[in-house]
Specification:
Elements: H1 4-15, H2 18-21, H3 27-34, H4 38-41, H5 43-49, H6 51-66, H7 68-85, H8 92-107, H9 110-120, H10 123-151, H11 166-176, H12 192-200, H13 202-232, H14 237-255, H15 258-263, H16 269-288, H17 292-311
């Protein structure tokens, strides 16, 4: 914590998980604002997550070769600007376009923060630093969805103003983050062919395919959480935000036990299977819950804990 560069990383880690979790409690309210169906409102989430499919590997290679600082600064600025602009439009098409741009900004934040932490520390110190970074992410995921659920009851625009935190964070990174000597390669240019060969490796390809499973379940939970809470269980946006916060806390707690669970088996297949089944069962529990308490205790906790177990190192799908 005495390293000012790491404090900047932690500031970025407060911003990075907001993109999906903050919007989750708002979606039922936004149905009326945008005048769209429950099916179409999912595009608000899909537009944010779609850029990661292509951009994250490319952004990672660019940050390796040109440095973490410019990529992180640009990512935070775009994330904050596009996100806060959502408060000024009720046009659904423009909203989806802004979320797409915000998603592009996100690809320059979370993966770069993980790499920047690895640049700054090594060995046990890196493990400790990554743990502190993940704790910061967990606190952000516990606070901002709940706060957004409360603010949307005052005005639908208010939660989007929270995204503006990305703008001062970008300024702090630009002026306060010193690039590590290992943060950039002397080589120039992005080797897309090397990336393609890596993806075609059976082990890597299967890992990427398997990684899509908890991501699908987690974002399914985030997308329809508020609609289930408000329309089916007579809850409030605040309750929907609390459910996201509860799932995030369960994920953080579950991540502390991943090492023990993995060490208890000769293969990683068992923890991966348990995590996948828990996440799927939790999502079904939220959808079929007869009450808010059942949705919280059975559904949200299982979704969060399952994602932590599947990730292996405790990284949720929205902030690897």
């Amino acid at each position: 914590m005495s390293d000012p560069r790491f404090r900047v990383v932690l500031l970025g880690s407060v911003v990075s998980p907001m993109g999906a979790a903050l919007v989750s409690p708002l979606l039922d309210t936004l149905l009326g604002v945008y005048g769209v169906s429950e099916a179409r409102i999912g595009l608000v989430m899909a537009a944010f997550t779609a850029p990661a499919i292509v951009a994250i590997p490319l952004v990672g290679m660019v940050s390796d070769q040109y440095g973490r600082k410019p990529v992180l600064t640009a990512g935070l600025a775009l994330f904050g600007a596009a996100g806060s602009a959502l408060a000024f439009t009720a046009d659904f098409r423009l909203t989806v376009a802004l979320r797409l741009r915000q998603g592009i900004g996100y690809t320059g934040i979370a993966p770069v923060l993980i790499a920047a932490t690895g640049d700054l520390f090594a060995g046990d110190r890196e493990a400790t630093a990554q743990g502190l970074r993940f704790t910061t992410v967990g606190l952000s995921l516990a606070v901002f969805p709940f706060l957004a659920g409360l603010l949307v009851s005052l005005a639908w625009q208010y939660p989007f103003y929270l995204f503006a935190l990305g703008l001062p964070a970008a300024v702090v990174v630009h002026f306060g983050f010193e690039e590590s000597a290992t943060g950039a390669s002397a080589e120039r240019g992005v080797d897309v062919r090397r990336l393609g060969r890596l993806v075609r490796t059976p082990r890597v390809g299967l890992a990427l395919l398997g990684r899509a499973v908890p991501s699908f379940l987690w974002f399914g939970f985030l997308t329809y959480n508020s609609i289930v809470m408000v329309r089916l269980l007579d809850g409030t946006p605040g309750a929907a935000g609390a459910l996201v916060a509860l799932a995030s806390v369960a994920s953080s707690v579950g991540s502390t036990q991943v090492g023990r669970l993995t060490a208890a088996f000769d293969t990683r297949r068992v923890p991966l299977l348990v995590g996948t089944l828990a996440t799927g069962a939790g999502l079904a529990g939220v959808a079929l819950a007869p009450s808010l308490h059942v949705a919280a205790v059975v559904g949200a906790v299982a979704v969060g804990a399952g994602c932590a177990l599947f990730a292996g190192r405790g990284a949720r799908p929205d902030n690897m």
